[in-house]
Design a protein that fits this description.
Elements: H1 5-32, H2 34-46, H3 64-75, H4 80-95, H5 104-107, H6 110-120, H7 129-154, H8 170-186, H9 191-194, H10 197-210, H11 216-243, E1 254-262, E2 265-273
Antiparallel strand pairs: 1-2
Length: 274
Amino acid sequence: MTLTYSNTFKSLCLLLFIVSPIIKAQDTIQNSQIAKDSVISDSLSKQVFNPNDKVYQFKTKKLIIPAVLITYGGLSLAIPALDNLNKSTQNEILEDKTRGNRFDNYTQYLPAAAVYGLNLAGVKGKHNLRDRTIIFATSQIINTSLVMGLKHTVNEERPDESNHLSFPSGHTANAFSTAQFMFREYQDSNFWLSLAGYPLAAFTGVYRVINNKHWVGDVVAGAGIGILSTEAAYWLFPTINKWFSPKSKESKVATMVFPIFQEKQAGIGLVMRF
């Protein structure tokens, strides 16, 4: 079956159909529990950081999913049966003349954008702007380091033969990193809303294959790396937070970390006032 832009548009509509009830549910909860939400909002805005919170605790079971995904991706490079699955999937896409698009260049960032957008709209997450940005920046640093390190070490050729930086999929790693970020920020306040980033992440991974930029194994490994990167950022936050916090009440050091987007480049800005 050939996938056209019309079908792609329908897929996006389906995603919006899935996500919109979740957001409406959030509004319903807020309207029905105004007093309770007001207290929660005040508490979250002041951000009483608790280093003993379960989200910062390392647990082996949280490694299971990313480990399985990364292992599968790695094995697809060495096991003929999995390598054949990569190639047969790609051949079917090419034979069916499945049409791709460039939406995956943007959907990889949408879950993170949603976290900041929802907070601006008054739907508070787990952390305030400062702490949230430190965690997000940490996850991106870890994610980029792992992805680029593996790309230049493995040197797997892309399906379209454009270069040898196919494994793992950076777009997919970014997408699942931001989806996991959204999950961690909203899992306590609204579990269903916290899941909204995963369909976008899956969409990104699927279209990296459809666009002939990655093998299936690349995408699966990228998903695992993205999830792992964000989990590691939350585990490291209590330690990293100390680096940006005044050592005493008398200290007048103020710190702000923020994202920077300029033309086609993105980065992190740091401002410290002594």
